[in-house]
Amino acid sequence: MIASAERRATITDVAREAGTGKTSISRYLNGETSVLSPDLRERIEAAIAKLDYRPNQMARGLKRGRNRLIGMLLADLTNPYSVEVLQGVEAACHALGYMPLICHAANEIDMERRYLQLLTTYRVEGVIVNALGVKEELLQTFSRGGVPVVLVDRSIEGLVTDMVGLDNPAAVSLATRHLVDEGFDDVLFIVQPFRRISSRRVREAAFRDTIGALGAQGSTVVLDLADEAPALAAIDVQLEASEEKGTRIALFAANAPVALRVALHLKERYGADWQQRAALMSIDDSEWAELAGMTTIRQPTYDIGRRAVEFLHERLEGARMPARECLLPGELVVRASTRRDKL
Amino acid sequence: MIASAERRATITDVAREAGTGKTSISRYLNGETSVLSPDLRERIEAAIAKLDYRPNQMARGLKRGRNRLIGMLLADLTNPYSVEVLQGVEAACHALGYMPLICHAANEIDMERRYLQLLTTYRVEGVIVNALGVKEELLQTFSRGGVPVVLVDRSIEGLVTDMVGLDNPAAVSLATRHLVDEGFDDVLFIVQPFRRISSRRVREAAFRDTIGALGAQGSTVVLDLADEAPALAAIDVQLEASEEKGTRIALFAANAPVALRVALHLKERYGADWQQRAALMSIDDSEWAELAGMTTIRQPTYDIGRRAVEFLHERLEGARMPARECLLPGELVVRASTRRDKL
DNA sequence: TTGTATGCGTTATCAG
DNA sequence: CTGATAACGCATACAA
After folding, report:
1. B196 CB within 8 Å of a chain A CB
2. What is the reported pTM?
3. Which Gene3D superfamilies is this protein grouped with (chains A, B) (predicted)?
4. Which residues of A112-135 are buried (b: 16+ CB within 10 A; e: fewer)?
């Protein structure tokens, strides 16, 4: 029988049990172990073990002004990208002694706002944000209050802060060149409404640039997952035109959710063997990509999460410097869907 | 310009600004609004707005002993099941005014232990656990200390607490009957090592029971995702035997990760049109199930998460009752993979 | 080397 | 109705 009942031991209990003052306990806890006599140290150890004492982080944080809490706002955990970034964040937090306070907006924009409020309330020391649609001012509150902010995947207009994400231009260029190299005459870039999300915007622009530079044929289709019909119809038109003209057309999805939606549509259109009849690739290497034999760009998600925490950590350690931008390279994973001999 | 600089306003600042005492501010914050004169109330409101004041949850928690924090320990966020449960948890927490402290063990058993420690340290009011391999004693610490525990998906030997999950016997029976109804002569139930995980154990047992009751042919293959070769070989043997004998055999994966692994294997074995050549179904309706045309049992994941929080909430409100068990029904989602006319 | 006193931001107790 | 004042659990300046 270790624990008493109902109430966790406090530092005072430990002090009494060890027959000393709270200060010594506090010293022991904070590793100022050299300042303690071996005897006292032993008594303290014993007392802690006996009472199963765990220092109260809340009280600790209240006193010293930092509670080791880091806010992590995710737009959509349903997107494997987010989960992977999260893994990196967690690992880095653990290594650096932080505790991530994970907030999942589930694609709801006011959830996002509410969570941001909550994070304020819990006095997180810093925030990592993969935002859906927060406005610059909301985050300003943090940085203005001395709470560093790191953006992930996308930047926010009017807000200058550290940001880490995929090197979109390079990634899109890599992918587009691959398609052209494989002999596709026409490429359809499919992306969610992109005006307001920087990463989508950059990807779309990079696509047009690359296609242009290569002198190849290509166009963009905007797919709104909340109203898919128009985009799917547009895709069909292109597919049919291509079939008529006898050209080879490739579909390039700007991220995993889009890829899934398009894949489902292709399956509906061509049947179970749609993979033999259409060429689809995408950014984001989701778990079913291998199963579908789909070529992808794999994002360095884990590193993105890790870097984000490191950025935060540096600021928290007092580093004073202009906003940084860390763009990590994506990796082309070639699978059957875009093979030259395919169509 | 709302906020000052560097330091968030405290209740004292607000009191000074409003020309009153801290007590009144506290009263205002806690909704004891009827006890305040309209005039004072207005001044307080103004002061709060002007200073952009946010009460400090840490201090609050320290004082009143509850910080509205709920620990949520997840074994593996890579499993869509977990993410979906999480959605339910988050929604319920939000509705009830709790903040979930999400801990992702990422399939590492000592991560799990460390996180459990951390949760203690942050004095969470309750914990929801989807455990990988924690031992009963670790959780005992919580319940013994008056911190309620709710188990999700699986129970833990030697620990009696509230638990919520899928009604596995019913779900497996439903699935197995479906397969037999569709005319399969033989069913291969594929499951990860199941001795130590109650949900897997129950599913396997339910499978044998149902197959027996139906007088049908069936057997179990144990697939260890860390050492897949033996299981995959075993599957191949069965597949070949079935082909020779000319019988119809179905593969029944006990969860999504297993289903994915098996699907990949089938693709390797049969090529891109493996879906036409093999019949695979699974528990867990992952996002690619529709794409692969795979029949599944969809778990009521969202409700599972919601119920877990509700259970916790009731305990936190002081409900005193024996441990409860909430088993929610799964839903059979029939797709092409198990259609009668298939093979 | 050790202990005392004070305060972190809130709420609760008790007087006015 | 309102406002001092004492805790909550801990860390730290200071004293011993």
Report:
1. no
2. 0.93
3. 3.40.50.2300, lambda repressor-like DNA-binding domains
4. bbebbebbbbbbbbbbbbbbbebe
